[in-house]
Design brief:
With 106 residues, the chain is α+β, with helices and mostly antiparallel strands. It is built from three helices and three strands.
C-alpha cells in the first residue's frame, strides 16, 4: 500500500507493527470519533481486523511511518490542530491510494 508513496526516504518498517482490535478504547470519550489510532508500532482499531477497510489500515500505517521518521515533530504537530495537520493530510492520501488499489483489484 504505502510502497507507492514517497513521503519519506525509507519505507515503513513493519517488523514490530501490531494491529489490535480494541473496541473498549473507542468507548472512551476522547476516542469515540476515531475508528483507528496509532501508538508507535501499535495500531488500535475499533472493528475486527477482518472487517477493517484497507483505507483505515493504510491511514494508520502511514502514521506508523511518520512516527518512525520524526516522532517528536509528529506528536507536537497535533497541538496546532487535527483536520489540516500535515500528518493527517498524508495519512488521508495513503488511505485514498489504498482504496483505489482495492478498487482496481476488485
Amino acid at each position: 500500500m504505502l510502497d507507492t508513496l514517497d513521503f519519506y526516504p525509507r519505507p515503513v518498517r513493519l517488523a514490530r507493527v501490531r494491529v489490535l482490535h480494541t473496541p473498549w478504547l473507542f468507548r472512551i470519550r476522547g476516542f469515540r470519533r476515531f475508528r483507528g489510532y496509532e501508538a508507535g508500532p501499535l495500531i488500535l482499531i475499533k472493528m475486527p481486523l477482518a472487517q477493517a477497510p484497507p483505507g483505515l489500515i493504510a491511514h494508520e500505517l502511514c502514521h506508523v511511518w511518520q512516527h518512525q521518521h520524526r516522532p517528536i515533530r509528529m506528536w507536537l504537530s497535533y497541538l496546532r490542530g487535527y483536520r489540516d495537520n500535515p500528518h493527517e493530510v498524508e495519512a488521508r492520501q495513503a488511505a485514498l491510494a489504498a482504496r483505489r488499489a482495492a478498487t482496481v483489484r476488485a
